[in-house]
Write a structure and sequence with these properties.
Elements lengths: L2 H17 L4 E5 L2 E5 L10 E3 L7 H14 L4 E6 L6 H8 L3 E12 L12 E5 L1 H12 L3 H14 L3 E8 L2 E11 L2 E9 L8 H14 L5 E7 L3 H10 L2 E11 L7
Parallel strand pairs: 9-10
Antiparallel strand pairs: 1-2, 2-3, 4-11, 5-10, 5-11, 6-7, 7-8, 8-9
């Protein structure tokens, strides 16, 4: 990766971690432990953000105990940007399984595709209204909804909750978080009964047009690498893959209880 592109990737990695934060964080010898009641792996995992002084074995054991004490899987979030590429191999040798390879995609302001949709409109809605839409579309259980609330409350001061409306009915929603020169798009979802009608693209185009008018330089988002329809959509809009990340997971039931 060229130096300029690597610098951009590292900046987006930091901005995205700050934007989609955790309820609690702990720095342990340059490994960042994040906790958010189990909602999203990004906010409930270990980020090896730098080199430290302690041996890996001690640090890994410490992390396992911290997460398993909360009855959570111990998860490491790794990426091709990490300074310790050997850590993936070490964790694999300790029975951490490989999970959820994802792309971080970015879009410079000057690369935005033309926006032609005029049939619907973008609405800024409250967190409570957004949560009702999102959980209805995703068909989450009541227990999972309870897990979501502390993290969403934590990010609500800097996040904007959006919904796309057509014919006076909401059909899709997302979260947008602006930070410095960057705009992150998170948790985008469409009503299952209205999928394949172009509403996800319309929502995204409205979001980007709205945000880039405020002098944001880059938009970014994260998408599972096996979600080919979503990746195809993002590429149509102009997004390109910048780097990848993945998880190594040790399940709670397989270790300390």
């Amino acid at each position: 990766m060229a130096d300029k592109k690597l610098a951009l990737a590292r900046k987006i990695d930091l901005v995205s971690r700050t934007a989609w934060s955790a309820v609690e964080e702990e720095d342990y010898d340059n490994w960042l432990l994040r906790f958010a009641c189990g909602y999203t792996k990004r906010s409930n995992s270990v980020y090896p953000v730098g080199d430290g002084l302690l041996p890996d074995s001690k640090k890994i054991q410490y992390c396992q105990e911290k997460y398993h004490r909360r009855k959570q899987d111990c998860i490491f979030r790794l990426s091709e940007l990490d300074s310790r590429p050997d850590l993936d191999h070490i964790l694999a040798g300790l029975n951490y399984y490989y999970h959820d390879l994802a792309n971080v995609m970015y879009l410079p302001q000057i690369k935005i595709a033309s926006h032609t949709d005029t049939s619907g409109r973008l609405e800024e809605i409250s967190l409570s209204d957004w949560l009702k839409l999102y959980t209805a579309y995703a068909e989450y259980s009541q227990q999972y909804i309870l897990q979501m609330q502390p993290l969403l409350a934590k990010i609500s001061s800097q996040a904007v909750f959006y919904a796309y409306m057509i014919d006076e009915k909401f059909v899709s929603c997302a979260i947008g978080i602006a930070s410095q020169d960057f705009f992150g798009v998170f948790a985008m979802i469409t009503d299952p009964k209205r999928r394949l009608e172009g509403f996800a693209k319309a929502l995204l185009m409205h979001l980007l047009t709205n945000q880039f008018s405020r002098e944001t330089r880059y938009a970014y988002l994260q998408v599972a690498q096996n979600n080919l329809p979503a990746i195809s959509l993002y590429r149509q809009v102009g997004f390109k893959t910048l780097y990848t990340y993945w998880y190594r997971v040790l399940t709670y039931s397989s270790d300390l209880k």
